[in-house]
């Protein structure tokens, strides 16, 4: 019964992590480029009361053993990088990636960050930056006399300048891909950084080496499904309640044992 208390408590802790993850997904249902995640669980160690093959007589042995599991725990958060729906905005600096890949940005301290959120802007120097002011990498600067900005599917950035009939190319957007994108480390602010699990970034022009193409005037919505998360929340809540009832039942049994021993 003491074992049951600790086992059920571990289940409650695991489901708490599950509910926390569901809450995070739902909180970011309208976050541009957000990727949902799920919690993965594993069972804990087992207390072996009787090993398989234990002799039961001089001529027979037990075909199976007797063991007691000691609960579960959350061990990983797996992020789903499936592409979200594209939403038209009409803004020339709103970009979405149709397919795999990440925009590259320069974080404070010079570290490179990676993001799917393509809501870009111009800063006071005409540089293309994120909403947090992080510069796109490689850097692209739009001249002050530009009338319009055009970005092709393969990332070529062109501007129309007053007094010139032909568009002027000012740079090319490069995307980054990873062998294991799920291994990227989330930094918040729609930004990821590399880890040993993700491997190094492989950069290239959009549309090459398995990278997606760029859609100008669109943003990628979160890939969170509200209905799916509500189902996950109900399942997690029911599992949490079931474990709490186990604790209550084990406690009542202990009380009965204590009463009998008096």
Could you characterize the architecture of this molecule?
There is one protein chain. The protein is of the alpha+beta class and 262 residues long. 24% of the residues lie in helices and 32% in strands. The chain has helices at 2-27, 226-261, and strands at residues 37-43, 46-50, 66-69, 72-79, 86-88, 95-98, 102-106, 112-115, 121-122, 128-129, 135-136, 146-151, 156-161, 168-172, 175-177, 185-188, 191-193, 202-204, 213-216, 218-220. The longest helix has 36 residues, at 226-261.
Largest β-sheet summary: 5 strands, antiparallel
Low-confidence stretches: none
Helix and strand succession?
HEEEEEEEEEEEEEEEEEEEEH
Global shape: elongated
Mean pLDDT: 93
- The percentage of residues in β strands lies in 25-35%
DSSP helix fraction: 10-25%
Task: Provide the structure class.
Answer: alpha+beta
CA radius of gyration is: 27 Å
Q: How many distinct beta strands?
A: 20
Distance between the termini: 18 Å
How many helical stretches?
A: 2
Write the layout of secondary structure elements.
Blueprint (H helix, E strand, L loop, with lengths): L1 H26 L9 E7 L2 E5 L15 E4 L2 E8 L6 E3 L6 E4 L3 E5 L5 E4 L5 E2 L5 E2 L5 E2 L9 E6 L4 E6 L6 E5 L2 E3 L7 E4 L2 E3 L8 E3 L8 E4 L1 E3 L5 H36 L1
Antiparallel strand pairs: 1-4, 2-3, 5-20, 6-19, 7-8, 7-11, 7-15, 9-10, 12-13, 13-14, 15-18, 16-17
Helix pairs in contact: 1-2
